[in-house]
Amino acid sequence: MDEPLFGGISRREIFIERFANAFIITVTLLTLLAALLQSVRTGVYLHLFLALSTCMFTAIEVRLVNWYRVGDLEPSFKYIIFMLGSAITFLCFVANMYFFF
Predict the structure, then answer these.
(1) Which of 26, 47, 62, 87 has CB 3.0 to 4.6 Å from 35, enough for a Cys bridge?
(2) Distance (Å, rounded) from C-alpha 68 to C-alpha 87?
(3) Which of 98, 30, 91 minimizes the C-alpha distance to 61?
(4) Contact 38/44 with Cβ under 8 angstroms?
(5) Average pLDDT in the 34-54 region?
(6) Conformational region of residue 73, where left means phi above 0, alpha means psi within -120 to 50, and beta covers everything else
(7) Residue 62 neighbours by CB distance under 10 Å
(8) Is 42 exposed, middle or buried (0-12, 13-18, 19+ CB in 10 A)?
(9) What is the pLDDT of residue 27?
């Protein structure tokens, strides 16, 4: 197996990344479920477009985390990945408030 390009990462960082990844995926799936329920209930199917765009951003985030874990990205990308994850989480909370309030 090839050695990572920028050195390995610690077990602590792997745990934090996996937890953050799981949290973001869970929040996104709950937003997708809420959008589906609201679109069926109200008949406004534009909610699904917001949820699908959130899922696309989450897919990008997951891919970046995988590249970082393998070692293909520089360590400075860690902060960009966490900021993107925070933005996705905030987007999901705002979308859920939009759906239900």
Answers:
(1) 47
(2) 18
(3) 91
(4) yes
(5) 94
(6) beta
(7) 15
(8) exposed
(9) 97
Please name the amino acid found at residue 78: K
* DSSP letter assigned to residue 10: -
Task: Report in angstroms the alpha-carbon separations of 81 from 11, 33, 41, 54, 74.
Answer: 18, 25, 35, 15, 11
Q: What is the DSSP letter of 5?
A: T
CA distance linking residue 53 with residue 98, whole number of Å = 15
Q: What does DSSP assign to residue 3?
A: P
How many whole angstroms separate alpha carbon 74 and alpha carbon 47? Answer: 36
Distance linking the first and last C-alpha atoms of the chain: 52
Share of the chain above pLDDT 90, in %: 67
φ, ψ for residue 74, nearest 5 deg: -65, 155
Segment 52-69, tens digit of pLDDT? 999 999 999 999 998 988
